[in-house]
Amino acid sequence: MSKVQAESLVSSHPLGKFEAVQRWLRDKRPKTVDMYLRTLNHFSERSGMDPDEILDWAKRTEPGIINDTIGKYADDLSGSMGFNLKIDMRSYLRHAGINNLGKSKIEYALQDWHRGYRPEEIKKVLSYLDSPIHKLYVLIAIETGLRANTILALRYRHVQEDLEANVVPCAVRLEPKFYTGKKSAGFCFLGARSLVLLKECVKNGLVTAKPDVFIFSGRSAGEPSSYAAMYDAVSLAKQKAGLDPKIQVNHGLRKAFENALDQSGIDHEYKMMIEGHFIGARGKHYTAREWDILRPIYAEAYPHLDVEGSNPEMEKKVASMERDMQAQMNTQRDEINSLKEEQARVAATLKKDASEKEIIAELRGMLKIKEGDAVTTQEIRKRAHKLSAAQMAKLEQLLGQQV
Q: pTM for this structure?
């Protein structure tokens, strides 16, 4: 959704006519605008006050009473919605200059535990998705661990370098802004499954191979696919597969990704970098320049991420054997190249020795020096005066070759 769509949400809502609300929601994302309007609307209906009256009331009321009132209205709602109302109303009041509410001790109590998808469940979801684009979304989610909004923000340029060079795994190179905040993206890769499908989508015109084009393009030109559209497609497939309703449609894929990395047993520090859990700026700066360090680590973990794989441990062993064999082949290739270079040096030396012997033999014949006698400079000068001009020219040529 674009800035224009966000402004449309404000202007079309009854509360959008209030200037305080317009200022509060300016430059907010459409999803945030929608949530804030819902929250403010509930508080307005519950209190019987419009947005301006709420601000006037808050300016005349003690902070303790304001907090109690917000908490009381939040209790009317479910856990997550009540939690959001407390946060959002404090944001509205703070934006209007009411900053005396004190530090918040708002806590969100998890209402239920949500597990991630199991590999066989992801396969079922994929089987009920008809669109290759929807399948690609699920595969990228399970292979990168990126959150839904980040996946939808992916542009072709983010994978172009490795994709067009046929490098597997393929690095997802995002801009620095994606690696900040509590929900930072990780330094992640696309595995073999998603790469095959991505190339098919490019070939069939479902994905445009231009740097600035979104991989998941929306209906409007230059816009990504909407979160709701992708959510609905995956949610329907999940329902058709008869999976546990407690599995979160999108976040369940990220949980499956993290579980797979845990099972792979890769180094914890590298695992945190791939997931996006950075410790300070050091990890961000260092790893951004060293994709080749993480690539083999990810490849080691990939058998656990590959939903089509039947035996991750066996695939890990096979992959390890392949890496060992490749290392041996590289060593043998280096040894062969070294032997070839040595052979070439020996051949050149032998050729030079043979050439010198031929020159000396020709000099002996021309100057009539007996076999066994040394061919010295003094001997050559003593005999050279007996040679014709043509023979002298030949002698100079031979001496030049010898030098």
A: 0.58
